[in-house]
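Risk register update: the risk of archive-format incompatibility is retired. Evidence:
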Amino acid sequence: MKNILLTVLLLLTQYTAFSITDLDSLYKRLDKVMDNRQLYMANKEEKIQGIKQLLHIENLSPQQTYDINLKLCYEYKKYKSDSAVFYILKNVQIGRDLANQYLRNKAEIELAWLYSTAGLYIESKNLLDNIERRTMDPRLLADYYECYNEFCSHYGQSNNNILYYAKSELYRDSLLKVVDPASLKYQIVSAENILYKGKRREAETALLSLLEKTTDKNPERAVIAYLLGRMYMDETKMDLQKKYFAVSAITDIENSIKDNASLQSLALTFYKEDDIDQAFRFIEAAVNDALFCNVRYRTVEGSSFYPIINASFQEKEKKQKMEFRLYLILISIMSLFLIAGIIYTYKQMKRVSKIRRELFKTNEKLSKLNYQLQQTNDNLSESNHIKEEYIAHFFDLCSTYIDKLENYRKALQKKASNNQLEDLFKTLKSTSIVETELEELYKNFDTVFLNLYPTFVRDFNVLLVAEERIQPRHGELLNTELRIFALIRLGITDSVKIASFLRYSLRTVYNYRTKVRNKAIARESFEEMVKEIGTLKRD
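Archived output:
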């Protein structure tokens, strides 16, 4: 019995020595990979630029443009989510333009996933709820269930809502029913499902097998290693959890995956071992990645670690103060040097305090500049959307008017050929066609404008005193007064241009503007406030 115990202890000692050596080698590699983060990002940007060049090829079909946009979305998805949203929104529009439900649904599912990671849970859920699952193309079911699974997980995590965790598991079960059992995705999701059902040894076997089949070039390897790390974290196996979190982090960094959980988990692991320096290093990298990618739930996760680490620093400082007091007792005979040291420390503290105040002021200025930049970007985005919408309708109207002019010319030619001069002159003198076309033009303008600003009439009336509010008559979208201020909302403030467009006299337009301004709650700033009202409808 004694010999058996000695043998077991010897084996455990050898295993521990091997594990320590293995971990040291892995940490050195992780350090090197973290030092080369900029290089991996440069490679990622180069790959993205190569795909972007494809968009400049002449005569691309909408389907080809859609496919290129989708590739860019996939590249940006866990790298820069804002850029991914930009390209997938283009695909949503292409799907609508082509009236292709498959393309539109595919793009909307991707958009819902991106909104979920950015913390836009309402927008994400609205997109998913508006997709009719029963009539959906079967090819999209896997993406649909996976997106719903991620949404429920993100929302549950951000609100600590157990109900959504349960929903996430239900959607994971649905996902397994539609994914190809031979695919890597199925095997990973299946292993994850087994793990969350408490079958850890079975999950461990499956995950270790999958890890052997993948390399650091496979982004899925990061997920596999992370799941192993989480499992060992729950089992408080510190060395194993650090090992697999490190493997996951290496894969994430080499593939420029900014939406990652491995670095945060490593930070927490090192914090538990009282290695505050390493913990801070990893949590700083994790938060920077989350901010770079604009992944809200990761940012919230990372930020929650800062108070913990700060508390550790405070505790560390307490210990140092106690040691300092002990040193004071031991070196009391060196009081002069001690006083000099205190004075020096006091000056340093004042200097640090001054620097902190300056940093705070600088951060406030940066925040204001960032806000102004965001406002400018929003205005540019709105302006571009308006231009796109009106250009499309402009070409459509031009085409329609050309057809009508051609028909009108043929009718006149026919009357002239048949020597129907009286009818010809009568037709030429008539203004009914001009009035009809003007009515059609205004109707088209009203429709397009209200499509862009669906709440314009309501928001406009908020600026007027209650008893003077303006409502279009039955059958009208906008009346003359509303139409004048709709043009002002679009940036056309010159009364001459407004009069030309609406075919009114300059005085009539001036009178309308004055009359409505007199009904306003704030007359002086009324027209400036009109320019700001209305919520642009984003399809």
